[in-house]
Each structure stands twice: as C-alpha cells, then as structure tokens.
Fold these 2 entries.
Entry 1:
Amino acid sequence: MNLLKAEWNRLASRRFTRLTLLLLVAGLLLIAAGLFFSHHRLTDADWAQARERAAASTAEMRAQCTQGGVQNDACDTKIEAADPRWFLPATFDFKGYAEPLVMVFGGLLCLYAFLVGSSFIGAEWSSGGVANLLLWRPRRAPTLLGKYVALITGLTGVFVVLGAAWAGIMVLLAQFGGTFDGVTPGFVASIALTGLRMLVLTLLIGTVAFAVASIGRRTAAALGAAIGVILVGEVGVRILFEGLFTVSRYERFVPSSYAGAWVGKEMRFMDVAGCRGGGSCVPVEWTLTMNDSAVVFAVVLVVTLGAAFWTFTRRDVT
C-alpha cells in the first residue's frame, strides 16, 4: 500500500500529467461553451417565425412555377409545403446529442490515457528513476505492478470525475438550451453503458501505451508504435487490401474497426471483393460485434502487458 501511495503521488505530481489534464478540461469546456452559445430553448416566437418563413418559402417556390404568366398545372402537386422545423434555430436535443458527445468525451480521454500512460513509465526510464527505485526495492515485478495499478486507478478516477461533470453539462445544456423529449430510462441506461465501454477502451489504450513505453524504455517507443499502427494498420492495410489486391473483409485487419465495434456494439461492412470482376454482383454484408472486439482486446492486453513484465524482470536496468 505504501508503494501504491508513492506511485499515486509520483503520477499526480508530474507536470506533464497536470498540463495534459488542464488541456483536457479546457478542451471540454470549449466544446461545452460552443454548444451553449449556439443552441437555445425554443419559444413560441421561434415557432411563429419558423411558420412564417416556411410559408414564405413555399410561396416563393410555387411562384417560380409561373413562367411568363403561364401556370404549370403539375407544379403545385410536385412542390410540398415547407416544414417549419427546417427554419427553427438550433436547439440542444439531449437524445440526439448525448451519444455523440459521450464518444467525443471518450475519444479525448483515450488520447489523454495514451499520453499519460506512455510518459509515466517512459520518463522514469529516461531519467534513471526506475534504476534508482530498484536500488532500495529490488523486487521488480511488484514495482512495475505498483506503477501500473497507480496509472489505471488514476485514469479511472479522472474518467469518472470528468465523466460525471460532462454528464452534468449535457443535462444543463438540455435544461436551458434544449429539450429532453424522447429520453427514457432505457435510453439513459444505454448511454451509461456506452460510457462504460469508453472507459474500458481508455484503460486499454493507457495500458498498451504504458507497456510499450516500458518495453522500449522511452516515451518515444509508444509514440512510434502509435504512428506505426496508424500508417500500417489503418492507411497501409486499406491501400494494400482495398486498392491493390482483392481481399475479402479486409476491415478485419484494421484496428479502428474493432474500436468502433466495441463502442457501438457492432459495425456493419459491405464486402465488395467479389464484385471487382465486373458484371452483376450483390455485395455481402458482414458484421463485427463487441464480442469480437473483446477477444482482440484481451489478446492485445495479455501480449503487451505480459511482454512488459517479462522484459522488466529479465533485462538489465542499468
């Protein structure tokens, strides 16, 4: 417990951790401010003005049917009356905005977890802090485990606290600048589960960043691995398997497909590999589910974290 407290203090006292946390909070506040000033609760006057504008737009479109004083008989039947909702000012619809904003929040937290997770152990390797720590505590596995637990619990705490604040902001936006129409207990439970899945993804990314930086003994190792995944796993696979070769269901090799399936419970794709020879063809629809993502995530977690502990206990730390 003393080791864990020391690691918590070390994590919280790092300037990089504090700076990135401030930037994260500032980014969330900027998003909230933009939503607040661009949305407001609809009033009777807004509806009245929207109906007037809809009527004027409809009259203008129908007037264009008259060319040279001759009325087109089919014009009035083709042009429907404009919907007043098209002319309403923006309002914060909680049901429509909640899930995208939870995903935006989760995406920012994933980036934060990657930066903090990689720098927490990477900076200590670079500065010699790990070697100094092992001079008075030579038990390597418990030492790395203490750092890892401190990171995961710290990230969880940040996610929960900021997540609660973010949920409160969304409620306030809907209260003063929007509506709760259509929001049911089932919908709230669904949003909560989406947030929980984003938490799991955040912790996974933080873990992988921590493990890779520990294996490479540099923060740059995790950054390089991330660039490699983007260039090879995202761009390279798409260019190779979609543009140059005909590979069925190539999205199975794209990491973001599993992240999307995890967050959204599933992702649907259209396999058109069999349609490239010409002629009539019906693309085959296939699905990646969150269960598929869970298996991949578990393998990545075991491999990277296991490799980090193995190298930490076996390699020379001087």
Entry 2:
Amino acid sequence: MKKTPENEFLYVFIAWPIVVVDASHLKSAYTGAFVSANTLDGAANEQLSEVFYTMAKAYTQTDFDKLMKRVEQFDVRVKNYLELVGNVKWARLYTPVPRGLVMMSNIAECINSTLVVARELPIFDFLEQVRLMFARWNCTNRKNASCTFTLLGKKFQEMLVLNESKSGRMTVVPSTDYIYSVSDKGKSYIV
C-alpha cells in the first residue's frame, strides 16, 4: 500500500496473473480507480472457446490430444496458431512450473459488476469487500475441486507422490478448521 507524505491513502498493489488490465472507478471520498488485471477471452466462437479452455486446463496428454483434434476441426488456423505460440505458454500440461490456478477468461467485467455497490464505500471498506469476494470465489472453487476426481499428468502425479511422502514425517495439529500447526525437522509452521 502506498500513502502520501500526509499519510493519506494513495494506492494498493495486489498481484495476480496479469494479461488484461481494467478499472472500476471509485465514487466515494477517495476517487480514483480499482485496477484489476486478468486474462482476456479473445475467441469469437463459443464452442471453440469452450474446447480451448478445457484443453488449456487438461492434465493428461490423451485429453489434450483429443481436444486439439476438435480445435483443428473448428479451424485449422487456430490449431496452427496455438502450436506456433507454443503449448508451454498456455497449456497446463506443458507448463515448466507447477501452475494450478490459471485464469482463462475475461473476468474484469464480472469483477466490475460485482463491485458496483462497493465502489461507493471508503477505500478500506472497499478493499474488504474485494477480499471477501475473492474469499467466496476461492471457497466455492475449493468445494468444487474437492469433489473432482481425475487422473493427473505424469509431472503432477510425481509431485503429488513426493509431497505425500514428505508429509508423512510431519506432525500436524489443528488449531481451527482452517489453521494448523505443522512441525517438521524441529521447525514449526502455521498453515
């Protein structure tokens, strides 16, 4: 958070994956803009768009290849473009780093419309509404994910097995439903 020399709020910076930037103009005593950065849904064809997003999130090579064939059926130019760009830049299966949360749609307008009323609030109340909104979304996504069972790609399955074996030597004591004390090799952590 940045303040003026007079200790007045100037801006706060919160980083999420960035592709497209949009702003909601604040209308309270603190005028300005809430700037959000998201990815952009640039596909014109709704069915192609759905296939692309499913393919981008695919964990297995079989699923990815099946979906790529469907993209080719829609428009071979799209398939060629995606291959030219490189799968590593957009497909979860090919990413060189662990990437679980990948935003693959333009949510800037969704954020703007959700925060219409909150934009009238003082800045700290506004930021609290933003925090609560993302907390609700994360909770919903976590609940949906806990009911999803699918085969993972080789890279992610190996990571899961490694983490499972490491976690076996840790001592975990719950403090609340969401906060745990974790001890490992003489070090303690709050998770």
